[in-house]
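User: I'm designing a mutation panel for Endonuclease/exonuclease/phosphatase family protein and want to avoid disrupting the core. Could you give me a predicted structure to guide residue selection? Please restate the sequence first so the numbering is unambiguous.

Assistant: Good idea. Sequence first, for numbering, then the predicted structure tokens:
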Amino acid sequence: MKLIAWNCNMAFRKKAQYIQAFNPDIAVISECENPEKLKFSDDTKLPSDILWYGANLNKGIGVFSFGDYKFQLLECHNQAFKNILPIAVTGGKIDFTLFAIWANNPTDKDGAYVTQIWKAINYYEDLIKETKTILIGDFNSNAIWDKPRREGNHTTVVNKLAEKNIFSTYHKYFNQIQGKEEHPTWYLYRHENKPYHLDYCFASNDFIEVLESVEVGSYKDWTLYSDHKPLIIKFNI
């Protein structure tokens, strides 16, 4: 099972073929337009299922299946967290709970980015299980920006997930330390000298045990299309 997380920087309809070249089973695309605006080119494979959410028809979060997997947004979705979507994934080789994430809620005075994730993982405490759970997307967060006295910084999110044996696939695969990542997923203003790691796939330990590969797109290959690079994760399922 291959998953891709990518903030496409809008206009996914013009860029979908570059993601499809990797043959993902599931793609979580931040800053994606509403499906009614998704007019794919003739040489682009059409997704078999789409789940989209957003207040702006040009800029929401889209979850795409290119195989047997089907999506259902769970009724417990709390719109206060906007683009953090609890989704039942069924129909493929394994059923699981997917949290599709684009941490971006400027209306929340407590914090627009990682604070959203902190609130969500506490709200969905009972839904986030020690098995068959994946959280993936643009977290807009890194340990380098931790404010030690602030509840809900990046490190506390990582630690709370670890309590349920849920870990970052990238950090497990490359044996990396949070805040010291060697593979950036975002370049501020697309400048090569301003790299950061903001995109993640956290998976429960049953997925970690069958983790086959993790890849981050290169600056050279992807900067023309977005300030973010895709995070590509493959599980041996």
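For picking mutation sites, this is relevant: The radius of gyration is 16 Å. The longest strand covers residues 26-32.
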